[in-house]
Amino acid sequence: MGKVAVLLAVGLVFSSVCFAEDAVTGHTIAVDKNIKDWTGAAPEQENSAAVSNGEYIWKDAAGDDTGNGKYTYPLDKALKKGADLKEFRVSFDKENLYFLIKTDRPGDWWTGYRVIGIHKEGAAGGTQVLAQGDPDELNFDSGTFANLKVAPALACQYVVAVSSTYKGRLYNEKGKMIARKEAQPDDTPGFKVDDYNWNAVEISIPLNLIGGSPAGQTWKFIVATGQQDNDIARKVLVEQSQYNGGGGAENGENPSVYDLAGADKATQEKELGSYDPNASEGDPKGFATIEKSFLTVNFAK
Ligand SMILES: [Ca+2]
Ligand SMILES: [Ca+2]
Ligand SMILES: [Ca+2]
Predict the structure, then answer these.
(1) pLDDT digits (tens, 9 = 90+) for 237-246
(2) Which residues pair with 97 in a beta bridge?
(3) What is the CA(6)–ligand 3 centre distance, in A?
């Protein structure tokens, strides 16, 4: 073999090793109020991602839970923190997709809501509106009402929402609820949500509910955190009060979202501030639009 051929062969082996490290091979997770089965090592650097022990791991910056840059928390002791995203992990096996979402711990059991948009690379269609619902219903079955959408290139096939320590909803691209976890007999089998210590929630989603296995595909995830109020988003108003944070817009069109994954603080503040201050409240046309705050996960074959 000539020198060039040897170098080429070495290069090919090296690049395929690198790719294997980047692909998420996944492993089974028990949604059981115990997070010790997430064994991957988080990256050292804030706002960076790693693949470790088969898991995708995003480490979010601490203290970037500022929404549009001006958001404050409510004054009440139970609500004065709790929406600072710390970590987001992804795993999978033949049956389920698994998430772990870590945030800071609220002052009481009022853990917030967390929204995860799922965008499958190459899929047609999808919804740009991540967090709205039917204003006549104004409940969790209908949506999360957090005033948030994504750019067309990130349109989502599915949206997962979690509220409190154990409740979940899965919506399809038409915004219709297709799975529910409420700790009731009619819960959707296999769709599980449970929290450890008010600051780390495990979620499992049966693959047959989200169009099959992600193996060999690239999916993007949009992760947003905020506070909840009867399982929908707690509004961030203009002025801070006992039960609402401040820093929002006069027209109420600002997102009820404190933190995002995938970008630095300046970028997420710009995106969360991109609502139309002249829109009528709740009109998705005027919602803040996410373009850069997302995570890219390559799933192994
Ligand atoms: Ca577990
Ligand atoms: Ca954060
Ligand atoms: Ca962040």
Answers:
(1) 999 999 999 9
(2) 92, 205
(3) 44
